[in-house]
Model the fold of this input.
Amino acid sequence: MTSTDEDYEGPSPLDNPTLPEVDGRPMDHRRQPKKKDRGTIPDRQKNGYYADHLTGDRLRSVTTILEGGVPKKALIFWAANTCTDCAIDSLPALVAASRFPDQLAELTAWIKRAHTRKKDERAEVGGAVHKIIEARLLGIEPPASVKVGDEEWALDGPELAPYIENFRRFEAEWKPAWTASEMVVANPEHGYAGTLDYTLGADGPIGDALRAQGYAVPAGVDLMGDTKTGGDWITPDDGGEPYPKILGSGHVHGVYPEAGLQMSAYRAAAWCWLRDGSRVPMPTTAPVGIVLHLRPEGYRLYPARCGDREYSYFRYAQVVDEWSSRISSAKVDDPVIGGALELPAPDQAVA
Done:
């Protein structure tokens, strides 16, 4: 039986957090000129911020905060293993290039970027799958193909068709009642914004399954939801049903606790934007959401706590991201580490 919310009662070191603040908010939120012609819904910029062109707010992206504020030690080993595998696969080319310094340098640089290429490829696949799901939830015609890297992948092609088939199977088996999709939300007071994957009703098989495991799902509220497409699945030697790989940490490969922090931030948003551009208060959602792990091999549905406890930790991650992305920079006006000291001249020395 899963532990219930009562297990988390009592004092917590985060009950009265004291967070460093900049102009009343923990993140740098330099305002920008208002640009009404840029649209009424805040849009995500490449610099990791959402720009609200009507209010001038510059709001840090939730996913960017988590990238900078939550340590991911496993990624170091994953990157090293990916580059090592690439080097082994490229061994004949490395040997041939070893006699030509320019070729060797070029090939070495290409191998060093193997983990970046793999990460970008997975992100593009995930983005493509999200676009397809969004079209399906909105009841609009999906695109015939989606661009991944330099290639166009057809929806009925071997790369994307398994994802779509498994998503339809999830819908048929769990009967989710969708209430929102790819909705931009923001908490201007705390300086962040993001785009949630979807929300869905808490009635039906999903809500019943969560309650059966002891999760608090109040009546009349929605659930936060997120789709993850990464990770590896294992196919048994006997050809049986594939299943997700479990890491040494006990986590499912591709489904990590940061999902709870991410959804807690969306849940704590003050505002959300409808597709017509109107801004409305963020609706109430349950302190537990779901993560749909969608892979070509199959799918699994996992509960993810995203209540006040998780939001407290998200706020601390926000401060760590502020430190790593801005405060610790050597380019700020008053850096933490200043210039090298110079030995004072004898007549300037302090007695």
Observations:
- Residues 330 and 337 are 7 Å apart (CA to CA).
- Residues 71-112 form one domain.
- The mean pLDDT is 83.
- The first helix runs from residue 62 to 69.
